[in-house]
Amino acid sequence: MADSETKLSDDTSGNGGEALSKLHKMSTTAGLGSGDYVAVNIVAVIAALLGVASILAKLDNALLVVPIAGIFCGVIAIVQIGRSNGTQTGRWLAIVGLLLSLGFAGFVVFQKVSDNYRTQQDQQAIADLTREFGEKLKVRDYTGAYDLFGGDFRDRVPFEKFKSRLSFFETAQAIELYGELSSVEWNGLVQFEFDNRTGSLIAGGLAKMKFAKKGEPLRQNALFRKVGQKWKIDTMPDLFPAEKGAANGGPAGPAGPPGP
Questions:
Q1: Which ranges of the chain would DSSP assign to H, the alpha helix?
Q2: What is the pLDDT of residues 96-146, one digit of tens each?
Q3: Is the pTM value of this prediction over 0.70?
Q4: What one-character-per-residue DSSP string does 122-134 give?
Q5: Are the C-beta atoms of 192 and 202 separated by less than 8 Å?
């Protein structure tokens, strides 16, 4: 009997540190399996709310701050819950908020990058179109230049009128004043708009017509229109002004010389 008591006493004293350690760990999670209240992490709730509100970022790029805040809160909530030893819950709220914030932020960023890429492609197409128009004029290829204009323009301006108007630069007076045409270039600035009437994209800019003898180029307003996936010159109102009386069905007068 004495030997048993001695052995029990030795086991208790030898494992005392381990027993106390287990007791401490149990005290930090006490009640978790007995229905006691477990706190919901407030940052997780905020992350979920911000995740839902992240859809607002689609309305304005400035509202990207909402999903960014949602991502920040989601990460913090997950870390806090993981370190709470089970005393906090709400991990799924944090995860859902984080995923929503990432999804909407990624969508807005991707859309912005795609729009910028398309804009650069459209700007390059307009620059190439304007340069091609100048190359056609330099070699007096009026048929080729005429084909660079859209169907509405060709319906309004017959080819003979188009050729007569541009051949002004071939006259002796024009050659003496301007010299030979060197190039036609887009000035690099353009404003895009969507035409609700036709459902097409239009762009307004300036074409610079450079001549050998004239230092300053002639600046011509130009309107471009995207027909399908291809850009066309919609009109150059300085060279081909709208006909007076055309809107009322009246006769149109002859066009004057190109303006500076």
A1: 2-14, 16-28, 42-53, 65-82, 91-138, 142-147, 151-156, 159-166, 172-178
A2: 999 999 999 999 999 999 999 999 999 999 999 999 999 998 888 999 999
A3: no
A4: HHHHHHHHHHHHH
A5: yes
